[in-house]
Amino acid sequence: MQRQLKKINETTHTVSQRAPSTTLIRLKHKLPELPYDHRALEPIICAEIMELHHTKHHATYVNNLNVAEEKLHEAVAKGDVNAQIALQPAIKFNGGGHLNHSIFWQNLSPNGGKPDAGLLQQIEKDFSSMDEMKKRLSEATIAVQGSGWGWLGYNPKDKRLQIATCANQDPLQATTGLIPLFGIDVWEHAYYLQYKNVRPDYVKAIFDIANWNDINCRFKNACGC
Fold first, then answer.
1. pLDDT digits over 2-49, tens only?
2. Which residues contribute to the annotated binding site for Mn(2+)?
3. Burial 103-118 (b: 16+ CB within 10 A, else e)
């Protein structure tokens, strides 16, 4: 009996030594490439703004998000709940900045097409007309105090389009439950070099480079139609 137990223990020890270890590999976030040249959106948004906005501001959000997530990974491994809680604002701010800008670049195009029949029908149902939707989105976005975003989003619960604003880099879906379709960045770094303090001119002009092909796809994915 003792020989059998000894043999079982030796076998178990050998198996445990040979068992492959599983290591969780954390993939780092990367700055997405623009789908167009920095000059492509001129004269609405100049190349200097696009280059600074993408390669400096967005890149900073990505880098800081990676740093915060690495610290969070270490805090979880140590069971340090206080550190995990303390890191949440940095993850929200930089993660939101990364999410928002990744959508923003795709939302813009020098040749963005127009709303397709399905989206236009939904816009007319929820806002009475395309012009009325633009008016309401513009008014809400211009009225953002300080820095933030104006959004056209889809409410999956009520199955309708809604306009919302988010402060700072708060991400739309995590903050409101709305699925983002079209976002307007009104942080000053998005327009100040060109439009100075005249935010309304920037908001009005950005509709001229709205990528409706991208917005159409986001709407179809959001509503499942």
1. 444 344 344 333 333 443 444 456 689 999 999 999 999 999 999 999
2. 53, 101, 185, 189
3. bbbbbbbeebeebeee
Distance CA 100, CA 166 (A): 11
Domains and CATH numbers, the chain: 47-107 (1.10.287.990), 117-223 (3.55.40.20)
Q: Which residue has the tokens 């492959």?
A: 20
Mean pLDDT score of the chain: 91
Is-contact 169 100, C-beta < 8 A?
yes
Three-state DSSP state, 170: coil
175: burial class by Cβ within 10 Å (0-12, 13-18, 19+)?
middle
- Which residues fall in the annotated binding site? 53, 101, 185, 189
pLDDT-derived band at 225 (thresholds 50, 70, 90) equals confident
Q: 3-class DSSP state for residue 38?
A: coil
- CA contacts within 13 A on the Cβ side of 194: 22
Q: Higher-confidence residue: 4 or 207?
A: 207
- What the block records as the tokens of 6 is 């000894």
